[in-house]
User: Fold this.
Amino acid sequence: MRTKGLSESKETTLAGAWAVSVTDGWYVKPQAEVKFDHSEAISLKYPNVFSFETAIDPTYKIGLETGYAFESGLYLAGRYRYETTNVSAKLNVEGDNTKRTGDHTVKVHRTDLKVGYEMDFVDLNLNWVRKSTNEEVVLSGLGTIGAIDYAPNEFEFKATLTDFGALAPYAQYTYKPEYKINGVKLNPENEVKVGFLYSF
Assistant:
């Protein structure tokens, strides 16, 4: 079970991008990001059997986006992004005083397809996201104890206020349909995110 209270549901992202105009309305944008999750942790506990905990380092992302903006305010965009982060894991087995630890690197391939509409003071968009990864989890003394294999689809709805100059407050709702990790079915998730972007 993934546990994350409101006080721990915070993140900071530093991003850089450069839009290159190919033709009128069509652009290509290389980009890079680093995301810091505050108090990000995942834990699995089975009483009298074992506990498994992980801690996640900053996530590094590099991608390439292309899109077309129409004069009406409508725009279309597509992006591929590669994401990588290091995860440290700890396994405690009941009756065994030895704590097994290890690190592994999670590598995610992400694809986005976006349609949006930009008005005088607000930008509205819908984004389809597909992520995929296939990683082995390795602990010292145990070797490979399992694999992470999943490819979920997500849908993001985002509204950004654009009438505040360099500061852009936003609200985002993400729906994550039912999907499987290593054959284990996970329930749908709903995620709400609010924050602001500052550009310079």
Observations:
- The mean pLDDT is 83.
- Residues 6-198 form a domain with the Lipocalin fold (CATH 2.40.128.130).
- The CA atoms of residues 124 and 159 lie 5 Å apart.
- DSSP finds no helices and 15 strands in the chain.
